[in-house]
């Protein structure tokens, strides 16, 4: 996949088959569009092009920008789009001035002049341009003038999947990891650096890796205990994760702490990726450390059984 970080370096292609959107999560609904994009490009002997935006448009134009958390970092999105077979990825810096482009300006300046679009494939009810004024019907009515075709993914195809980034965010915020993973078509992930914490876990037989997430805009699922897989240095380990404030030991800050099963390495300063497999229980306050340790032993048994039996 060729990546263009902005519009300056891209040259018009001879047969560009294009789609556009934020594609946060690259979920099953997005995958329907990407599959059709690739199919059309191959059938016409063209090259597939995806236009996306960074940062997320809502963080620039919306009043609730501070509350928006993303399902994928930019690096994660790039990797997923590459895996989906996209040949050209155009990442447009989303600014307030860019948000003021009319649909006509967007079509002529970007789709035509910069990319040389020959066919546009868009999802049902996709909108673009200032105030989301442009859409399928507008382009369809003017496609002979613009010199490219437009295809809209049928409503029934999109609604049959029944997935949206908003639904996935809502599921994760409730701890419904299994539902989120079904919508994503893969496990939800968090990637970060291992930092030193209070190291209390070592004293009670559950040493944990305390993660600092790389991107503060990344959505952290609901507080609680999870069964997870841990990708460290290309190897997959099993473990259990606690997200929360550790009320039993008077914690004051939210932490992301993973107990990696059958693992004994010093990994401070290194990167891990957590793959969420199942929500086990909410975070709770226990009546002292002995009660906490007893519960952690039960959590470990449940997590090991869940991961071993493939109940994810």
From TrEMBL:
Coiled coil: none annotated. Residues 183-308 form the Riboflavin kinase domain. Keywords: ATP-binding, FAD, Flavoprotein, FMN, Kinase, Multifunctional enzyme, Nucleotide-binding, Nucleotidyltransferase, Transferase. SMART domains: Flavokinase. Signal peptide: none annotated. One of its GO terms (molecular function) is FMN adenylyltransferase activity. GO terms for biological process: FAD biosynthetic process; FMN biosynthetic process; riboflavin biosynthetic process. Its EC number is 2.7.1.26, 2.7.7.2. InterPro entries: FAD_synthase, Riboflavin_kinase, Riboflavin_kinase_bac, Riboflavin_kinase_bac/euk, Riboflavin_kinase_dom_sf, Rossmann-like_a/b/a_fold. Pathway: Cofactor biosynthesis; FMN biosynthesis; FMN from riboflavin (ATP route): step 1/1; Cofactor biosynthesis; FAD biosynthesis; FAD from FMN: step 1/1. It is an enzyme of class 2 (transferase). SUPFAM superfamilies: Nucleotidylyl transferase, Riboflavin kinase-like. It catalyses: FMN + ATP + H(+) = FAD + diphosphate; riboflavin + ATP = FMN + ADP + H(+). Pfam families: FAD_syn, Flavokinase. Catalyzes the phosphorylation of riboflavin to FMN followed by the adenylation of FMN to FAD. Belongs to the ribF family. This is Riboflavin biosynthesis protein. It comes from Spirosoma arboris.
